[in-house]
Design brief:
This protein is α+β, with helices and mostly antiparallel strands and about 400 residues long. Helix content is about 25%, strand content about 35%. The strands form three sheets. The protein has a 19-stranded mixed β-sheet that branches.
Amino acid sequence: MQVQDRLAYLILQAASHTATVDELQELSDLIKADQTGNISRQIETILLEGMPADNTAYNTAYWDKVADKILAADHATAAKPVTLYKWMAVAAAIALLIISAGAYLLLQPHKQPLPIAAVQPAITPGGNRAVLVLADGTQIPLDSAVNGTLAQQGNTQIIKPGSGHLTYTHNGATPNAEVQYNTLRTPRGGQFQLQLQDGTKVWLNAASSLKYPTAFTGKERNVELTGEAYFEVAHSSALPFRVNINTGPMKVDVLGTRFNIMAYEEEELVKTTLLEGAVKVTGNGSAKRLQPGQGASLNRHNGTMEVLDHVNTEEAVAWKNGSFQFEGNDIQSVMRQIARWYDVDVVYKAPVPAHFRGIIPRNAEVSQLLHTLELTGEVHFEIRGKQIIVSP
């Protein structure tokens, strides 16, 4: 296959959101290796194929179709369509494709730099930051703690083996020993990974907390979650594992499985997404059993719970894998995720009826991320200190 044909194929796959991980990586590698700008010009040529010959400079209907396909704005719920000038649509299309592949492309100099990046200091993404609260109330900032043994809780040793990780090692049961509870808390702009005494692994997202016993000594394993976490539960038929949600009347019972729970106070829905195994989700007197690929959504305000078939599991765990993944999310949902990860406050000047689809790395500076969203033509941002101002 010729290079031009291969490039066209990769762009089409990325634009239609059907590209494999290897294909996205290949597209990313081609772009990053391009030193002359030939790749970006070829992308523009490919995107322009089919442009009506009678009006090559500007054609609203044509570019609406391009924007619909490449930018994938959710017009089913958005109040106004995307209308882009020729160069803006091409730039936005290229930017989104590159970001989907995990890289950034410097756009052509015909567009002036956005004010959000011109005078503001960089707002960097979050990282491995958390505080461990011991049973006696002692607090240990984990991002500054040295690697090694941090504390001893009864017969359980707490170890920080490396940056972003915490493990519990139990040295044998003590009869009638008092159960001690620890809490792991991440701030806005923080995340951390935890291995419980039974071998269960937990990834904690920003602005979240998990309360758990230092050792599981009863007939079941109970933990309490606020915020968002991904679990890989160590199998034990004798000791069922239960996650109690502090921000909504939901609990999740499992034997051994992989799943994600999103339960932030500011979110209307508490969501459980099952990737592997089986769980029983209970909420407001209703119990539902989930199969892999299903999800349960509990409305915290009216108490209704719904089981969703064929959910996008990649979207649910994108945060754990280092990405934002938007699947028709409205601007409010997008900005709540940004606020938690970049530790910023969001202010709206006016309603913005914008919806977004795409994948953006979580390691980008916030100005780069906002610049990409602005390319849709549906939203504008200003950064003032740690505040992001949103307007149409």
